[in-house]
């Protein structure tokens, strides 16, 4: 009797854990989702149509409500993962800025997404435990699912940051050439940055956005040294930080800005050419593995296969006859 109760208790523990996790996830979703019923939404749409509001305005208002709901729910969700000191908070802010998320609530929303991912991973892992039973393999799968869901926002932000930095690295030499032309034509550095932000919106929108933001900060009255230094930190690209240092030094010592920009552009193009040559040199080494694993076996079968079949057909009967 005691053994049967113990077995039933062992079966009830994962069920209770899964129910608790599911209830917690449901509460979080109910906290985040603050939408109205469908009937009230249709009444609001009719009221907006009578008052002259368009569907686009209603859509924008709905998006603003969702954004505000996420921003309101994010601090509560991200509270267990918030940075413990100013250094960690600044690192998180720089990480978000490198990915293009500059709002004050970006870090909080990111940590809240990680916490929600952890809850969803635990819920999915609990489902796998219930379906497969409690053993080492099921526990390992559940832990991997929970960990993968927890680190999924980090991977997404890292991919966005890498793509953004690659776009800045590829578009910066063209931006510097345009700045050289503008400066040599008589424009100041501020006007040259504004011209770059206007002319490169279609070709290199990320570079245009960063230079436009820097020009806006300059127009607001911030010191040029701080703006350029923040530009290098915000992008996270080594070449932009080097450019900011060169411009700060040229402004401090009164040297030619056009010459500094031209030298920086030539050095960046040289570096790009060296990176291309490095990748071309690595191609031969990288081709060894597909050649050995996929191409050489096929060539071996095509070339040696007929000779092997002929040898088998002619030699085996003679050997068998002796």
What can you see in these coordinates?
This protein has 12 helices and no strands. It has 322 residues and is an all-alpha fold. Helix 1 runs antiparallel to helix 5 (106-132), helix 3 (55-78) crosses helix 5 (106-132) and helix 9 runs antiparallel to helix 10 (238-253). The longest helix is centred in the middle third of the chain and has 49 residues, at 136-184.
Structural descriptors:
single chain; 322 residues; mainly alpha; 86% helix; flat
Write the layout of secondary structure elements.
Blueprint: H1 2-32, H2 38-51, H3 55-78, H4 86-98, H5 106-132, H6 136-184, H7 189-199, H8 205-219, H9 224-235, H10 238-253, H11 257-286, H12 288-321
Helix pairs in contact: 1-5, 3-5, 5-6, 6-7, 6-11, 7-8, 8-9, 9-10, 10-11
The averaged pLDDT comes out at 75
Total beta strands: 0
Run of helices and strands: HHHHHHHHHHHH
* Total of helices: 12
Uncertain residue segments? 1-9
- Could you state the oligomeric state of the chains shown? single chain
Structural class, by secondary structure, is mainly alpha
Question: Biggest sheet, in brief?
Answer: none
Strand percentage, roughly? under 5%
Q: In angstroms, what is the radius of gyration?
A: 31 Å
Task: Give the helix level as a range of percent.
Answer: over 70%
Q: Between the first and last Cα atoms, what is the distance in angstroms? A: 77 Å
**Bulk shape:** flat
């Amino acid at each position: 009797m005691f053994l049967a109760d113990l077995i039933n208790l062992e079966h009830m523990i994962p069920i209770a854990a899964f129910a608790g996790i599911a209830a917690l996830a449901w509460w979080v979703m109910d906290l985040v989702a603050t939408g109205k019923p469908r009937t009230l939404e249709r009444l609001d749409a009719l009221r907006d149509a009578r008052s002259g509001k368009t569907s686009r305005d209603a859509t924008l208002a709905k998006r603003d409500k969702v954004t505000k709901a996420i921003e309101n729910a994010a601090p509560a969700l991200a509270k267990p993962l918030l940075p413990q000191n100013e250094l960690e908070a600044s690192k998180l802010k720089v990480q978000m800025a490198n990915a293009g998320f500059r709002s004050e609530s970006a870090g909080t929303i990111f940590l809240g997404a990680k916490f929600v991912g952890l809850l969803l991973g635990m819920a999915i892992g609990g489902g796998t435990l219930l379906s497969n039973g409690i053993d080492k393999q099921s526990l390992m799968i559940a832990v991997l699912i929970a960990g993968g869901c927890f680190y999924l926002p980090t991977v997404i932000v890292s991919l966005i940051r890498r793509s953004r930095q690659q776009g800045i690295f590829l578009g910066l030499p063209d931006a510097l050439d345009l700045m050289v032309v503008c400066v040599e034509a008589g424009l100041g550095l501020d006007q040259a940055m504004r011209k770059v932000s206007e002319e490169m919106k279609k070709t290199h929108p990320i570079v245009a956005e960063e230079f436009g933001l820097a020009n806006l900060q300059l127009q607001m009255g911030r010191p040029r040294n701080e703006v350029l230094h923040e530009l290098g930190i915000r992008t996270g690209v080594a070449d932009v930080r080097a450019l900011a240092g060169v411009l700060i030094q040229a402004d401090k010592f009164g040297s030619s800005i056009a010459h500094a920009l031209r030298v920086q552009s030539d050095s960046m193009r040289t570096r790009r050419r060296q990176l291309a040559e490095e990748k071309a040199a690595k191609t031969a080494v990288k081709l060894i593995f597909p050649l050995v694993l996929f191409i050489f076996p096929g060539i071996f079968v095509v070339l040696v296969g007929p000779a092997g079949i002929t040898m088998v057909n002619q030699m085996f009967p003679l050997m068998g006859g002796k």
